[in-house]
Specification:
Elements: E1 2-4, H1 15-18, E2 29-34, H2 41-48, E3 65-70, E4 76-81, E5 85-90, H3 91-96, E6 102-103, E7 110-111, E8 117-123, E9 131-137, E10 143-147, H4 158-164, E11 169-173, H5 178-185, H6 193-203, E12 208-211, H7 219-243, E13 256-258
Parallel strand pairs: 1-2, 2-3, 10-11, 11-12, 12-13
Antiparallel strand pairs: 4-5, 4-8, 6-7, 8-9, 9-10
Helix pairs in contact: 6-7
Length: about 270
């Protein structure tokens, strides 16, 4: 099992010590994460599972865990092949192959990019070092991007535009309504529904999932944020059409939805 941490705020790490897979030793688990102020993924889990704060010390389950550090997210990719395994590679090295088979397997075997899952990374706009992940599925050509813990920006940076471009599904942080953001939560590192829609339309995303709901929000408040997003889509799409009647609108209101942040997995 491969687990990718976006960052180390507690709302993104505390579920792991409480999950059943942490204690099932026949299942090998690899955790990927950034290095922030000298702290890597192993340090985070070891600190979370430490007496007297947690009843099971990490040393009791550590044997089936391994850890991979992502020091410079924008300069690396992760390649996954069903037979060749997993390889972390510098972006410039990856791009130098230019369609040629990629050396992924430990035995030196090479595999076509079209057979791989390619994971690209980008730092998001958040108080701590945070990674956004772009998953490109070679066999199908489908693209999923997770952009959580990312605050509103006035524009869409060129690098971010390229990172998000053409996503079949963009899951994006929409924790606060526009009104609450402007009144109370600007600077907290989270987004609003109108901003998410504006970005999704600009990069040509086909579907938009609103995620990272505020822990204090009720179901009704999440529904209102969803409606706010759909209203924004209508307004922005109309403005685009007024400028260019032939413009193609990739994202329709029906393709905007609220993600379920927490799900129970039954093994």
């Amino acid at each position: 099992m491969q687990i990718l941490f976006t960052h180390y705020h507690w709302d993104h790490t505390q579920g792991l010590p409480l999950g059943p897979l942490t204690f099932i030793k026949p299942i090998p688990i690899t955790i990927w994460g950034t290095v922030d102020e000298g702290i890597g993924p192993r340090d985070v889990l070891a600190a979370s599972m430490k007496r007297p704060f947690f009843p099971v010390d990490f040393s009791e389950v550590a044997s089936h865990f391994s850890f991979r550090k992502i020091e410079h997210p924008n300069t690396q990719v992760i390649l996954i092949h069903p037979e060749g395994g997993i390889k972390q590679m510098a972006v410039d090295q990856f791009e130098s192959f230019d369609g040629k088979p990629l050396p992924i397997g430990k035995d030196g075997r090479k595999y076509a990019k079209s057979e791989c899952l390619v994971i690209r990374m980008m730092k998001s706009f958040h108080p701590e070092k945070t990674i956004s992940y772009r998953f490109e599925e070679g066999p199908t050509g489908k693209v999923f991007v997770l952009l959580t813990d990312h605050e509103n920006q006035d524009g869409v940076p060129t690098g971010m535009k390229a990172f998000l471009k053409g996503a079949d599904l963009l899951a994006m942080d929409s924790q606060y309504s526009r009104a609450k953001y402007e009144k109370q939560t600007a600077g907290f590192g989270h987004g609003t529904p109108d901003y998410c829609v504006r970005v999704a339309l600009e990069v040509g995303a086909k579907s938009l999932g609103l995620t990272h709901h505020d822990p204090g929000s009720t179901d009704e408040e999440v529904k209102k944020i969803l409606e706010e997003a759909k209203t924004a889509q209508a307004e922005i799409a109309n403005a685009i059409k007024q400028k260019d009647a032939k413009a193609v609108i990739s994202l329709t209101p029906e393709r905007i939805f609220a993600c379920q942040d927490y799900q129970t997995v039954i093994l």
